[in-house]
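[agent] plan:
  1. take the single chain provided in the ticket
  2. run structure prediction with default settings
  3. attach structure tokens to the ticket
  4. add a short note for the reviewer (M.T.)
[agent] executing step 1
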Amino acid sequence: MPFVISLLQESSRQFPGTSRCKFLVEGQATAEHPLGVSQCGIYNERPSACRVYPTKFDKAGELAVLCEAPAPISGSSHPAHRLCARPWEQQDFDPIEQVQHLAVAKFEMNFFFKLAEAWNARPRDWQVFPEFLQMVYSNRIRAEADCHEGECDETDQEVEARPIVRFPRLAA
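[agent] step 2 finished; step 3 output follows
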């Protein structure tokens, strides 16, 4: 059975019956903010997917495009679906930093797809998966002397054309 990695969700304490990102720190309601003010608890270390939201690359992969945030659930009167005070605007983002975040997110997503392909080619028991992740991520930086047959000198086109995924293999 293939596995998927995703951010953990848990029940919201502020809005019972809804879920939230595990890392969202929910603020209590006040007179000034009747729905509370919540913030990311790992903002400086947040995942790439969170850093780029709500932007994506244009088709050429050169410019950041600001996407519309999803509309509240149709017909819902739940206060959790009205938390965004206003739509995002271009001025909310640093034009250099946002494109850098998108480039990193694209690179990480490509790496993740290769990682998932390697695992799903021979899935094992779920308890071995964290060990597999640790092994793969701990071997992402290699000394040039450890490269075999010029593999560290390959061009991007050679790497993309190569059908082999260079991940360490788990012992059988």
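[agent] step 4 note for reviewer: The two ends are 17 Å apart (CA to CA).
[agent] ticket updated
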